[in-house]
Specification:
The complex is a heterodimer.
Chain A lengths: L2 E4 L3 H13 L5 E4 L2 H11 L3 E4 L8 H10 L5 E6 L4 H10 L3 E4 L4 H17 L1
Parallel strand pairs in A: 1-2, 1-3, 3-4, 4-5
Chain B lengths: L5 H16 L4 E2 L3 E2 L9 E9 L1 E9 L1 H12 L10 H17 L7 E3 L3 E4 L14 E7 L2 E11 L15
Antiparallel strand pairs in B: 1-7, 2-7, 3-4, 3-5, 3-6, 4-8, 7-8
Classes of the chains: A alpha/beta, B alpha+beta.
């Protein structure tokens, strides 16, 4: 399982990476913003993407739109401080499969990851 | 400043600390910032723009900030460490994001965080808007949440403006 972790905060990437490791996912590639991520997805071909919303250079929602515009179907979880219902609807409309609001507990993020992966496996 | 914006910040800072740090935040009586108000050495700053504009500052003494960052990252980290500002920035990002979600019917964008570290610095808030200080106490020590925001008449969200420090 290859997981692309996109967040401009190294602190937040480390927190999420520790949770992924606890779940047994050790093949994790990090990107610091949407542009950085777009430059890596071709070679890495992730099975799951975790993406923040507010980032410099290219934000998460723009990344999702551009990624989906390429016809790529990889499951995407938005992990963000943007908690308003309108934002969640915007993200789902853009092609996000699941949504986690920061702050989160390790259990909450773990559950969303498991839920998303099982949904994708069943599809 | 409209005082109805105070409670969302109190709820948010308590939620962020409880969820990410397993730490309780006791909140004191908010007061208007004056020239003599305490100013700590570390400030995490977020700009807001859109239906509400201004700035949110998480202002901490070094000892408190180092304690809080250690809890967040799981390891001791001095304020001189290259990753220290990132951790402080992520905290104020979560506090601001959680608060703005409680502004009913408002579209608000937040900036990427900035962090200032240095003795006796002051963050200048929104012009013509008084800054409100919410004093907080935790197991790691005291800190302040400083809010200087106002409602705008424009519904269209604009990019947050940069803030000045002095």
């Amino acid at each position: 399982m290859k997981i692309l972790l996109i967040d401009d905060s190294k602190t937040m990437r480390n927190i999420q990476k520790a949770i992924l490791t606890q779940l047994g996912h050790t093949d994790v590639l990090e990107a610091s913003d949407g542009l950085d991520a777009l430059s890596k997805v071709g070679a890495y071909q992730p099975n799951l993407i975790l993406v923040d919303w507010n980032m410099p250079n290219m934000d998460g929602i723009t990344f999702v739109k551009q990624y989906r515009a390429k016809g790529l179907k990889t499951a995407i979880i938005m992990v963000t401080t943007e908690a308003e219902k309108a934002r969640i609807v915007e993200a789902i409309t853009a092609g996000v499969n699941n949504y986690v609001v920061k702050p989160f507990t390790p259990d909450a993020l773990s559950e969303r990851i498991k839920e998303t992966l099982s949904r994708v496996a069943a599809a | 400043m409209d005082h109805s914006y105070i409670m969302p910040f109190i709820k948010s800072v308590q939620n962020v600390f409880a969820t990410m740090l397993q730490m309780q935040v006791k909140v004191g009586k908010p007061f208007i910032k004056t020239a003599g108000s305490p100013a700590y050495d570390i400030s995490g700053i977020i700009g807001m723009a859109g239906d509400v504009e201004g700035a949110v500052v998480l202002n901490m003494p070094t000892a408190t900030a180092e304690g809080v960052v250690a809890r967040l990252t799981g390891a001791p980290m001095a304020c001189t460490h290259a990753d220290f500002p990132d951790a402080v920035g992520e905290l104020v990002n979560m506090v601001s994001g959680g608060a703005k979600a409680q502004f009913p019917g408002k579209t608000v964008n937040i900036s990427c965080p900035s962090v200032v570290i240095g003795h006796d610095h002051h963050v200048l808030g929104c012009k013509d808007v008084s800054s409100l200080i919410i004093p907080c106490t935790t197991d790691c020590g005291e800190f302040c949440l400083e809010i200087s925001i106002r409602q705008t008449d424009g519904a269209a969200a604009r990019k947050p403006a940069a803030l000045a420090t002095a």
